[in-house]
Specification:
The chain is an alpha/beta fold. It is built from eight helices and eight strands. It is globular and about 70 Å long. The N terminus and C terminus are likely disordered.
């Protein structure tokens, strides 16, 4: 990986929280009305949210996205039987508007069909995964999951989770929520619990079944119904809470204020490698160290250890 094109660590450039002491007020001026203004604006304009799902074919990525939003967001296209194996990756994106209680969400889902399908390297963290995740975590927020968790016993699932966590630390892959973005004690407490459970062991299903007189999302097997929203069966509720109910705005803020700004600074500095002309940005050229470390950052050496993990 070219060090001059590597994105800086996202933890190095997020704006610090304001530390200015509060000013004593003599009376109310209506500041609390800003919340009502934000709510009215949100109800009018809605929100936008982008998700990219990555994994080998057949892991249930489409079903997982449909389960997240309880709608037919993504319809997978099955490969032709006996057809040639695709030799290149081509991103596929679909956009839908989902409305709940008057609030609209413009959702864009991007799939990466064929990623890693041609690599036969079972039961290990593949070099492709390592390189991909190292690049990706500096560009977007990464949330890893264990797919088809119902194929593992509880003991196997926990052991698998710990091995994946160890490999993420070994290869300096910083997944969301990043420790450096915990702004106060409440953030640290909440996010520490989330980090301890990542990668979430999930099961996807977009069909309802009748269980004890109630309809539940689940997957029917010859042993019974695997309930998607039952924490005794899988951790899908934790994934949904993280992506939608508790951290959606934080995911958007980090993407805009950190990842995009890092990308913008690099692109602006790269413009100095081009001849002067229309659109040339008058910035002081940055050294390779400035491009990779705009602030205090932990420098990691990428290593490749043999392991028994598979994402």
């Amino acid at each position: 990986m070219d060090p001059q094109r590597r994105s800086p660590s996202p933890c190095s450039s997020r704006p610090a929280s304001p530390r200015t002491p509060p000013c004593e007020m003599l009376g109310s001026v209506g500041i609390e009305a800003v919340l009502d203004q934000l709510k009215i604006k949100a109800m009018k304009t809605g929100f936008e949210f982008n998700i990219m799902v990555v994994g080998q074919s057949g892991l249930g990525k489409s079903t997982m996205v449909n389960t997240l939003f309880k709608s037919k967001v993504w319809k997978p296209t099955p490969p032709a039987l006996g057809g040639p194996v695709p030799q290149t990756l081509q991103l596929h994106s679909v956009t839908h508007v989902i409305e709940e209680k008057g609030l609209k969400l413009k959702l864009t889902v991007t799939d990466t069909p064929g990623f890693g399908d041609q690599i036969n390297n079972d039961k290990c963290l593949r070099p492709l995964d390592i390189e991909f995740l190292q690049r990706l975590c500096r560009t977007v927020n990464v949330v890893p999951v264990i797919a088809r968790a119902d194929s593992l016993t509880i003991e196997e699932r926990e052991a698998f989770r710990r091995r994946i966590q160890q490999n993420l630390r070994t290869h300096c892959i910083d997944v969301y929520p990043q420790k450096c973005f915990d702004e106060d004690i409440n953030d640290r407490i909440l996010n520490s619990k989330i980090r301890d459970r990542i990668p979430f062991a999930v099961v996807g299903a977009d069909r309802e079944h009748l269980v004890n007189g109630r309809c539940v999302l689940g997957r029917k097997t010859k042993w019974g119904i695997v309930e998607v929203e039952n924490m005794a069966h899988c951790e899908f509720p934790l994934l949904r809470d993280l992506l939608i109910r508790s951290h959606l705005q934080d995911l958007k803020d980090i993407t805009h204020n950190v990842h995009y700004e890092n990308y913008r600074v690099i692109r602006l500095n790269e413009s100095h490698l081009l001849p002067r002309g229309p659109g040339w940005v008058n910035l002081a050229p940055a050294s390779s160290r400035q491009l990779t470390s705009p602030g205090p950052v932990k420098v990691c050496e990428w290593t490749q250890d043999d392991s028994d993990d598979e994402f």
